[in-house]
Structure of fumarylacetoacetase:
Amino acid sequence: MELNPTHDPSARSWLASANNPQADFPIQNLPFAVFRRRASQEAFRGGIAIGDQVIDLAALHQAGVLTGLAAQGLAACTGDSLNPFMAMRPAIWSALRRAVFDGLLADANGPEAATLRASLVPLAKVEYQVPARIGDYTDFYTSIHHARNVGRVIRPEDPLTPNFQWIPIAYHGRASSVVISDTPFHRPMGQAMPPGARAPVYGASQRMDYELEMGIYIGAGNTQGQAIPLTEAESHIFGMCLLNDWSARDHQFWEMAPLGPFLGKNFCTTVSPWIVTMEALVPFRVPFSHPADEPQPLPYLDTPANSAQGGVDVQLEVRLETAQHRARGVAPDRLSATSFRHQYWTIAQMVTQHTVGGCNLQTGDLLGTGTISGPTAEEAGAIVELSLGGSRSISLPGTGEQRTFLEDGDAVILRGWCEKPGAVRIGFGECKGELLPAVGD
Amino acid sequence: MELNPTHDPSARSWLASANNPQADFPIQNLPFAVFRRRASQEAFRGGIAIGDQVIDLAALHQAGVLTGLAAQGLAACTGDSLNPFMAMRPAIWSALRRAVFDGLLADANGPEAATLRASLVPLAKVEYQVPARIGDYTDFYTSIHHARNVGRVIRPEDPLTPNFQWIPIAYHGRASSVVISDTPFHRPMGQAMPPGARAPVYGASQRMDYELEMGIYIGAGNTQGQAIPLTEAESHIFGMCLLNDWSARDHQFWEMAPLGPFLGKNFCTTVSPWIVTMEALVPFRVPFSHPADEPQPLPYLDTPANSAQGGVDVQLEVRLETAQHRARGVAPDRLSATSFRHQYWTIAQMVTQHTVGGCNLQTGDLLGTGTISGPTAEEAGAIVELSLGGSRSISLPGTGEQRTFLEDGDAVILRGWCEKPGAVRIGFGECKGELLPAVGD
């Protein structure tokens, strides 16, 4: 396979901030978002991140210097959602990314470079909205470590349900309450059944949790009744982001038999602004297979082509910023770190399983991966796992505070990045949300 | 309370077909749909049913004879979804319905009547689409009889989960695969775990079922984080329809632990074209309370104002039309009949529960009531209940066939209507779908 020039680790940009080896957005990344200048009345439009800047794609389109497929793609990035662009074929996604890459290269000196320079807006001055009109949001449950950790809390004798190793389990989530990073939300009211009680209580959740996840945006959808085979699944994926599936564990555990989570999850789900394309992730793909001593996937979920590079090695971390951290100017404490490469099921398997019965995915649909917990206890992606169901306090070294669940004023910050020898580090930016006190408690 | 003239049982229309006492669409009903002439290239637009005709609301708007609130409402009914109209306040819904009612009255002779007459299209010549852009679809589980019937199949020792009498249980469904009546769909492929097997099998569902439900369309939504109190819940409901939540029971039972139904439900959900407004249903409201020997609702789900008329007495029936019925020209066989008045939770309680944690409903969102099964075995709203989990055959008198689950070519027809002494019967039309053979089996 020919090397894609956008993966060349020696490529540098004329924009100095893009060449910082710790930058999330070097010239090898070029993720997409929908943005405008903060506190302005400007229309939201598409943007591509580079270094500490955003390329304003509406301005770039207006300048009219791109041609061919790249120009077609660019014209679809000028509105307040990326759906028109996401609906296009991967060759167009690729052409636009390549044209922007070429114009940003250190030795670029044509009209594209000048126009790109004129289209830059500092990242520090922008705000974002959810980058797609999300028709449906589906949340998977694909970390075997998370499934075992949580299962031990509620079903100690049998933590893993028998279907886990056969099915990428999923449930439908709530699309309307997906919000962009930095949107605070209120602690939810609802019913919980206290241990040993005879009747449930109504009140603010006492067991507030986050869930470290990644999000997958669908590009082209499928016709209802027509499944997407595994070999084609990744061509339907536009890119990935960070996702926090906030959870009210007390409400969730009381309501979820027999039909699954509902109010325990649907009050808020936070996504990061930037969508990293599948093309940018190519250098960080890893081989994937189920352990030989575990059930092997049924044929429709198992192809050699896929298992050769089914995983994605995205480093992930969760940090907690309490009101005390902010008051004292202390950096947020790290709660855990892991990698997305540990998932039991791949993103292609998720797409194929979702459509195998004929369910139609649509452009802009969001799939959550489910909580990402790694193999060791320290790699858990939810506080209910770290605190063993609330039975153990977690110390925050920065402030000396303790936590079993989240408290009002706590902000959770997810970060993700890919790095390995011989490749330039690329990052996902951050996904942050702050828990406000309950309304009407 | 002043009598709403549209509820006057003595009202008659100049359109003779509207005065048939068995008609679904007398002048007292006036439900809304989105339609166009069948097999035409016309734009879909709003319509109101009267007798055997549809009032073309785009044509009526064009004529410009309505004024005030009614004209405001009418202008919002000309596009290919009713969302702009549903987003308006109930006074506008009411004003448009009243203006149309007045113009259809037997003694109406102004320009409104002439214009209405000129806007009629025969029901027999139209086709429909889903009348709203559905942001999210939620399915409830509010029939205690259904919950007990199904629970006995999978949890004989404890059929009702402990939360049922405290929570209007719900889960998120799939909005993208909601289709309009008369849209056939394919038997889904997927995984099932046969009894006693050590590994699941992949194939077409062997336990295909329907679910008799009603659908509720949301009018005005709520802001994320702001719950809708019970006393205001019904003002957020635009109207109701019939809904068939097709289910692949073998796939569903294998996948649903621990996160609920997913592929077992998301391949297709069918809705009827006509939305009967809450105003038209006023004469058929019934008092509602939980039995004294069962837990009483927590205060946020229980107000005197609501329990006075929380129920809706909609008569419902399920008919099965097999390929044999069609080949022989035999009428479909009735499988069961019941009433919506038996539900354990009200539609207002569903809306309030959905939002109590801060989840935002949006205009056009669809809530399913869950399978509607009455108190006796004959009133069951799903074939898995009628056939006792597939252990008993159901005879179809019309053709002499037998069924335990649905077979390819079977069409299920749901019908609903309201009738009582002193009121004119109103109907919901029908909700029909045919099961086609699996693709790729």
